[in-house]
Write a structure and sequence with these properties.
This protein has 271 residues and is α/β, with parallel strands linked by helices. The chain has a single domain, classed as Rossmann fold, CATH 3.40.50. Helices cover 41% and strands 26% of the residues. The two termini are 32 Å apart. The protein binds S-adenosylmethionine. S-adenosylmethionine binds next to helix 3 and strand 2. This is Methyltransferase type 11 domain-containing protein.
């Protein structure tokens, strides 16, 4: 059954605001893989579980057409509201039933999304729509996240860990798929030409406000918010105050180093 954790309008707005674009390192890795395996032309890229479109937009420079697909109407509405990408379109739909002809897609991606899919049905559909030598690139980050600021040492990480412990009971078992870096899904891909890169550490500078906003986008935070709205809101307020206090600053615009560890599953459909 399709996971319905991203349906609410306010959740989609948070996604648009606080989810970041895939890092250039990862995009380059995927495009180089596609070039090596299939080469040009790059006609059609399809991004599954596209959310509010961050990965789709970053692909538009490299493909004639990009299509983003998501099961959530709210996410697609937010994605469509971003102007300026004439070769990008969106469809509400599922990764398990793709409305593309056999052998028509050059690159199929899923950013932070493949762990939500029904693996068997998705892989079968992916193999159907990819062109010969077309590629699959499934990426995301697991639970490794670190925050650094000047001499704060590990104290900011301890605060972050405490938040994650509170959210643990609200965490869907599907999230384990991302935390295990899609190991099971990778093994289920029935072709020999595949690889799984487990660690691509990426450091970016984010404001405290963005870090808190990013936590708000987590499906487990949204589940907590539904179960206990005042406790969930208080958790974010308390966390913001603790972070400011540890950093000895007063503005939530202050930047910290935020380190994520991406993973990426790559596969190439045989001729
Ligand atoms: C964690 S979000 C990631 C969104 C976006 N790719 C990003 O990186 O910010 C996962 C997305 O996958 C979508 N999703 C979950 N299951 C799906 C399915 N079976 N088919 C299509 N989309 C799905 C959700 O609606 C949600 O928008």
């Amino acid at each position: 059954m399709t996971a319905r954790m991203f349906e609410e309008k306010q959740h989609a707005s948070l996604y648009q605001k606080y989810r970041f674009d895939p890092p250039d390192e990862l995009k380059d890795l995927i495009l180089q893989y596609l070039d090596k395996k299939k080469g040009k032309p790059h006609q059609l890229a399809v991004d599954l579980g596209c959310g509010t479109g961050q990965n789709c937009r970053s692909l538009t420079k490299y493909f004639e057409q990009v299509v983003g697909i998501d099961v959530s109407e709210s996410q697609i509405a937010e994605a469509r509201a971003v102007p300026g990408f004439p070769n990008l379109s969106y469809r509400v739909g599922t990764a398990e039933e793709l409305s593309f002809p056999d052998g028509s897609v050059d690159l199929l991606t899923a950013a932070n999304a493949a762990h939500w899919f029904d693996a068997e049905r998705f892989i079968k559909e992916a193999m159907r729509v990819l062109k010969p030598n077309g590629c699959l690139a499934l990426f995301g980050y697991g639970d490794y996240m670190k925050i650094h600021y000047e001499s704060c040492g590990d104290r900011l990480n301890d605060i972050y860990e405490e938040v994650m412990q509170i959210l643990l009971p609200y965490t869907s078992s599907k999230v384990n798929g991302a935390n295990s870096k899609l190991k099971d899904l990778f093994e289920a891909i029935p072709i020999p030409d595949k690889e799984r890169i487990e660690s691509i550490p990426i450091k970016q500078q984010l404001s405290i406000k963005t870090v808190i906003g990013f936590i708000q986008t987590f499906s487990m935070y949204q589940a907590y918010l539904r179960a206990d709205p005042s406790a969930a809101t208080a958790l974010l307020e308390r966390t913001t105050s603790r972070i400011l206090e540890e950093m000895k600053v007063s503005s939530t615009e202050t930047k910290v180093d935020f380190i994520l560890e991406y993973f990426c599953v790559l596969a190439c459909k045989p001729e």
